[in-house]
Design goal:
The protein has 96 residues and is mostly helical. The protein is built from four helices and no strands. The protein folds into two domains: 63 residues, no CATH class; 29 residues.
Length: 96
Amino acid sequence: MRIDEMVDQQTLLLGLAEEAAELSQAALKLYRARDGKNPTAVTEENAIRHLNEEIGDCRLYLDQLHCVSEDMIDKAKKMKLARWAVRLLSKERGLM
């Protein structure tokens, strides 16, 4: 049995939003573990493990959503990567 046959798409979207929020928190915790300015009891190793777990959770939900298009995602990634590179080069050259 497939998950997307047992859970409706709206519920999957809610689950994805929850997992995305947890991914955000995990990224912030890893930042704190590495930065050291605002100490946390979580080690960098555990923070990395948790970040990867949350990435996996998000991917699990994304794999079940019918509205996800790998072609659209790849196009968006290419466009955003190019824009990011332009911004970095502009900053490096003092244009920003």
